[in-house]
Design a protein that fits this description.
The complex is a heterodimer.
Chain A lengths: L1 E6 L6 H8 L2 H4 L3 E6 L3 H9 L5 E5 H9 L8 E6 L2 E2 L1 E6 H9 L8 H17 L5 E5 L5 H12 L8 E5 L2 H9 L5 E5 L2 H7 L3 E6 H4 L6 E6 H6 L1 H19 L4 H9 L8 H9 L1 E2 L8 E2 L4 E2 L10 H13 L7 H8 L4 H8 L14 E2 L5 E2 L9
Parallel strand pairs in A: 1-2, 1-3, 7-8, 7-9
Antiparallel strand pairs in A: 3-11, 4-11, 5-14, 6-9, 6-10, 12-13, 15-16
Helix pairs in contact in A: 1-12, 5-6, 8-9, 12-17, 13-14
Chain B lengths: L7 E4 L3 H13 L5 E4 L5 H8 L3 E5 L5 H10 L6 E3 L7 H10 L1 E6 L4 H49 L3 H15 L3 H15 L1
Classes of the chains: A alpha/beta, B alpha/beta.
Chain lengths: 378, 195
């Protein structure tokens, strides 16, 4: 059967590309037609109207669609996660210089970085200068929530003390160069592209803010999943094998070359390979340093759709006032991520599938997120 | 039925398409139409236009920028995707297929905007058709040029008449299951190599 899948040119579309290009889909009698898209809104719309059977989606986008925030209310599910991590926060060289004079260095932890940034924010306020502007890629994205979490942990109010705007990934580096923005949070390869172009410094990988943090998922309409249970299971298995292929160090060079093609990510293979290895040069003059667990395609149950991830996104939507709490919403959010479908499809392939649907999520500042406590947040 | 009081904003970097839609809307009696081509200061333009309905082309990556503005900005009235009623998936499908994204200000009645969306969809479709035709016409022109050059080479090198030269190209194309223009391109390339 032929499936049409949408994707955005980013490192973590890797499993989709490999499933299509390295025979994993064919083994499951699937033919994957991958369609490159220009915006997340297009991905959502084309999934919702049935142009795409499934797509490379922002995790929080499945929740937003299910709740109908800002758009048509169509239940979208996440039966499979497309890896963990892969994002970083990059700032302009000027801001980096100011942050270093406030005590930040390449080796600092996210807390020290945030404190240094707070110092810059305060001195700008005193000097009555415009607030700093940070960009991310979509209002319902891990990037938005990770950036906000980090800023807030450093005592910076993301809605008052800085400006947060959306800029599509391919335009971020130019915006940073032009001084239109002072920093951004985005997936690879765009952080490395900024460093390589000599216009930015990588402050931190977001996996240092939230270890084993989620990113994209495979998203599809609930209704499609109910109509095509076998095809969905086949797709999950093909993607699972593809993600394991992506995880193997010996395949990284080949994967980087594959993704570097213009019809996929269209970025230099060398930068993609470094990101796959977790070797990121934080500044133009520093050697690439190894970031532990930067981008994880398969290991550590990176493809398991943890319900606690969906609930954390919902908690952030509440925290940043994108939506108001309701018990109905909470139930709908729980039903968005589908570990049950994951277990049913992958029981024979993955012997180490978690038996729990949720886990306690831990952050760099010592805070934890216990999904069981969510109802009391309303 | 048109509702001339409605303010409409088009966000489209393609000048031709934007004017096709703008013209259609004006002809239908919508006089409050603003067009944004430059993505700088998008928010300011939206605030100034204060639109009831916004259209954006789907090739435009700035669509995500627009959606964020609707989410956070307190200075624009909050537009939402057109037809948030689930029964209208067909309308959304028609819009997406024609390549247009549509937003309406929350609370605007559906009947007031349906004809505008229909107009946008048909004009976007007309534009795609126009673009396809243009691409085809360009291709045909290119084909004709290369065939003329190949004919000229065959006439000169083999002493053939114009008709005979074309017949030879056509026969070779049929034998190889290729287009005449492709065979002509090979002749031109070969002649250049043999010079």
């Amino acid at each position: 059967m032929k499936l049409i899948l949408g994707f955005i040119p980013l490192l973590d579309c890797a499993s989709l590309v490999v499933a299509a290009e390295r025979g994993f889909a064919a083994e499951e009698d699937l033919e994957l037609a991958l369609v490159r898209e220009t915006s997340w809104a297009n991905i959502r719309d084309r999934v919702v109207v049935g142009h795409f059977d499934a797509a490379h989606m922002l995790g929080p986008m499945t929740v937003a669609s299910t709740l109908g925030i800002g758009h048509v209310k169509v239940p979208v599910i996440a039966p499979f996660a497309l890896g963990l991590g892969g994002n970083a926060i990059t700032v302009s060289l000027r801001l980096w210089e100011q942050m270093t004079s406030e005590g930040a260095s390449v080796e600092s932890d996210p807390g020290t970085h945030a404190a240094a940034l707070k110092g810059v924010v305060v001195s700008r306020e005193k000097a009555r200068r415009e607030p700093l502007t940070f960009a991310m890629v979509y209002p319902f994205s891990c990037h938005n929530y990770e950036l906000r979490y980090w800023l807030a942990a450093g005592g910076i109010d993301p809605d008052r003390e800085v400006r947060l705007i959306v800029i599509p990934p391919p335009f971020l580096v130019d915006a940073l160069r032009a001084g239109q923005i002072d920093g951004f949070c985005v997936g690879e390869p765009w952080n490395s592209v900024a460093v390589h172009a000599g216009v930015g410094a990588i402050v931190t990988a977001t996996t240092a803010i939230w270890p084993f943090s989620p990113e994209k998922v495979l998203g599809c309409r609930l209704e499609w999943a109910q109509r095509h249970p076998k095809q969905l299971a086949s797709l999950q298995r093909a993607l699972y094998r593809a993600s394991q292929w992506c995880e193997r160090p010996r395949n990284r060079a080949e994967l980087a070359t594959l993704l570097s093609q213009p019809r996929y990510v269209g970025a230099p293979a060398e930068l993609l390979r470094q990101a796959l290895e977790g070797q990121l040069a934080q500044t133009t003059h520093s050697k690439p340093s190894h970031l532990e667990n930067f981008y994880i395609p398969a290991q550590h149950n990176a493809t398991f759709p943890w319900v606690s991830h969906a609930l954390w996104f919902y908690a952030q939507m509440l925290r940043w006032k994108q939506v108001e709490f309701s018990a109905d919403h909470l139930a709908a959010v729980r039903a968005t991520y589908r570990p049950d479908l994951y277990r049913a499809a992958l029981a024979s392939l993955n012997p180490a599938i978690p038996v729990e649907d949720s886990k306690i999520e831990r952050f760099f500042d010592g805070q934890t997120f216990d999904p069981a406590q969510l109802p009391s947040m309303g | 039925m048109s509702d001339p009081a409605l303010r409409i904003l088009l966000v489209d970097q393609n000048v031709t398409r934007a004017s096709i839609l703008e013209e259609g809307l004006r002809e239908a009696g919508y006089t409050n139409v603003a067009v944004v081509r430059d993505m700088q200061n998008l928010l300011r333009r939206i605030v100034d236009a204060d639109p009831d309905v916004i259209f954006i082309d789907l090739e435009n990556p700035n669509r995500d920028v627009l959606e964020q503005m609707f989410q956070v900005s307190r200075c624009v009235r909050r537009p939402i995707a057109m037809f948030v009623d689930h029964s209208d998936t067909d309308m959304i499908r028609a819009a997406v297929e024609s390549g247009v994204g549509a937003y309406v200000v929350d609370g605007l009645r559906k009947e007031r905007v349906k004809s505008i969306l229909d107009m946008a969809v048909s004009r976007f479709n007309a534009f795609s058709q126009l673009r396809d035709e243009l691409d085809r016409a360009k291709q045909e022109l290119e084909d004709r040029k290369i065939i003329e050059r190949a004919k000229g080479i065959l006439m000169k090198e083999r002493g053939l008449s114009e008709d005979a030269a074309y017949g030879l190209l056509r026969k070779a194309a049929m034998n190889d299951n290729r287009r005449v223009a492709e065979v002509a391109q090979s002749v031109v390339t070969a002649a250049r190599l043999l010079k």
